[in-house]
């Protein structure tokens, strides 16, 4: 019995969250297999096959898997599940959408958003927006987990490729049709989920142009841009930049919160960052209770000044 | 088209939670409870679809002890036509909840189930997807827009994903889970609260439904997370940059 990790990818690139999951899986002491289902996704298969610690790649190529539709993928995973003790996906919108469907098809409960592995059957997960940590033990013969990538390090690539097995299984349930994806990703900036530096803006920013100001700083620091719910609700940035209980959870080396007061729902999405900097003109803002470095200042002066100083070295 | 909206009673989102003294659970006795905010959004969406003449009736359902009736009364006051309480004193995991909802959906000949994408207490984000699997239906999760085409028996949804807004077309019947930006739930007016008292709220005993309740999960411990300590206030941007470069070594 081995561990099955479900790869997250866009048919071109393997998302780095998968590399974090490999590190987590290594704590479980079983062979690690990765399932890469997609269409015309050879580059992803190649990347996955050179991850250190992985023994087998299961490749499924079919138009039915191109858009990662949960209905089709879940049935595919169900079909191969008998070989596995653990089935793991990232706690991202991809994994959250897919894995509970797999769990129900297998009549097994799922443990969501694991942040620590205590033993082969016991796991820690946040509840109540991270205001409490629950340790859950399972007696299930098959263990289904979504794992928070940022809680585990990223595995390395090696030069020895592992075995690649083809899955000639096609599940096209025809329940759902992909129509389109409106991406908002800024190609000049790194991906928010895995960026080592994140600059996030909140209620203190008033216009879309204010976020352009943050982007100037982000370009200098090779940082990703994030936002609090207030900024997203105000329409200043798109929803995929939202950090918090119901958005993305990030844990970069450096998190710079700009004009963010620090509601508990927001803290749930960033409090595991290594260093937190808060820039806010309100000295009473709750964010200062969590920040390593706080700067009480008007962000409209502080951000351009910081951007300029970075040029000077 | 008959719609089922599943609503969960949770600790009010504005209450600071407390972990009990033997570290086994979050304290919920004598605490203000409320409808899970994501389920309020599901309820509101069902109402809007009914007002648009697309949904014919809305049944709200919740599972729990008699105190959950309060949350169902709220659903009725918001505009649900009927409510069902599946009565049990057990705390059930999402898979068991999904099994109960699947039985009800079949019994009531439901075509559309709507519920919040996650409950703000256990943050599991599982029930809708599990229900769709058990029924063999299409699933539209984390939706921020819903357009039902009754003639073609399809729903077009926009989903909030990590990559942006994804548009899918689902075949009915389907399960929809709702995200924050789908709508803003309306306030409940007093006349609606009064009216809700006359609407049917049926209690079904869990044992009377033929659902095998079973869980392999056990909570060993509930603990407070490690607290971050407040750091220092720096006097200037120059000082901040100096510290980031030479103390924190992060840039």
Give structural notes.
The complex is a heterodimer of chains A (313) and B (251). Chain A is α/β, with parallel strands linked by helices and 313 residues long. Chain A has helices at residues 17-26, 42-49, 70-80, 93-105, 208-221, 229-233, 264-267, 299-312, and strands at 2-6, 32-38, 56-61, 84-90, 110-114, 116-119, 122-127, 132-138, 143-147, 163-166, 176-183, 197-201, 224-227, 254-258, 275-280, 293-296. Chain A has a seven-stranded parallel sheet, sandwiched between helices. Chain A is globular and about 60 Å long. The mean pLDDT of chain A is 95. Chain B is of the alpha/beta class. Chain B has one domain: HUPs (Rossmann fold), CATH 3.40.50. Chain B has helices at residues 37-51, 69-78, 94-107, 127-135, 190-196, 237-246; strands spanning 2-6, 9-11, 33-35, 57-64, 82-87, 112-116, 138-149, 154-161, 164-171, 174-178, 201-205, 217-223, 232-233. Chain B has a nine-stranded mixed sheet, sandwiched between helices. A two-stranded antiparallel sheet of chain B has the order 2-3. In chain B, α2 packs across α5 (190-196) and α3 crosses α4 (127-135). At the A-B interface, α3, α4, β5, β7 and β8 of A face α3, α4, β7, β8 and β9 of B. β16 (293-296) of chain A pairs parallel with β13 (232-233) of chain B.
